[in-house]
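not sure who needs this but someone in the group chat was asking about Glycosyltransferase family 2 protein from Blautia liquoris so here u go. i didnt clean anything up, its just raw.
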Amino acid sequence: MRSYKVDVLIPTYKPDKDFAKLLRQLAQQSYHIRNIIIVNTDERYWNPGWEDIRERIFVSHITPEEFDHGGTRRLLAQSTDADIMVYMTQDAIPADDRLIEKLVECFAMPRIKAVYARQLPKDGCSTLERYTRAYNYPSESDIKDKDDLSKFGIKTFFCSNVCAAYERKTYEKLGGFVEKAVFNEDMIYGARLIQDGYAIAYAADAKVYHSHNYSCIRQFQRNFDLGVSQSDHPEIFSKYPSEGEGFRLVKKTASHVIQIHKPWLLFQLAAISGAKYMGYFFGKHYRALPNWLILRFTMNKNYWKEGV
């Protein structure tokens, strides 16, 4: 396998004990990580002791008003000349010491320019969320390109910056992540890759622990931002809407809870799914909403600081 220079890039905000665990796990990887580069939001919540966990951890700080899902990751990309950029979130914990190795292996195929990892449920993950992890991140690896659009639609573009690796030269050639994004910067870039003739790999043997037991309100807000991101990029999402994929997940989840003899979870599924759909619907039509209501609906209030 060709030897690549690999840097890990992590945006953080109020990192907790999981972040220290993440750094320790990265220090034990079988494939050499050159640098860990962090852009931290709000220096008040940063623990300088984290910088001693391993050598070559570089940290810069921004204000909450400066953070942007796309712009901050662009800032991270500008700080590296690595061959491969591995993006992670602060709460994604490598499942073993071969995470980076398994991500990098995929780039042996020249057409692959992005690779994302499998997300496993953490301890305490709810039954519904555990099934969602298994549905979105199955045990079999996969590669998708332009030829898969007719079969998989919007899922062809899927890539998750919870843990994803990108070839830097292609990233720069295509313009990188969008400068301003309320959410979904990874899939927007993934669409550009696919439309330009490249492929995205899903590496099921590159594994991180990552899951959330979001409330209905949180699911509404998260999906509102998802809807906004799709509304802002009709060149991608108008042709490949995500509603069908969402309904497919609901049906399969309902079937699963019946199979495991927990039919009472159907009520929870209905509430969560309703919150997701309503959030997504309002996000898709956010231009018709007053500013004060948008600020109630979004997870990312600072995104709207310059107005709608």
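also The beta strands are 6-13, 35-41, 57-62, 84-88, 93-94, 112-120, 142-144, 163-167, 199-209. if thats useful
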